[in-house]
Amino acid sequence: MITLYQFQGCPFCSKVRSLLNFSKTPYEVVDVSPRGMKELEGITDHKKVPVIKDGDKVVVESATIIEYINENYAKLPVTDADKKWTDWVDNKLVHFLPALIHPNFKTSRENIKKITPSGGFKGFIIPFIGALVMPKVAKKMKAKYNIEDPRGEYLAEIDHWVKEGLNGKKFYGGDEASFVDCSVFGVLRSGHQLGTVKMAMAHSKDFALWYDRCYPLMTGERLSNAE
Question: What is the Cα 195 distance to its own chain's centre?
Answer without folding.
Answer: 14
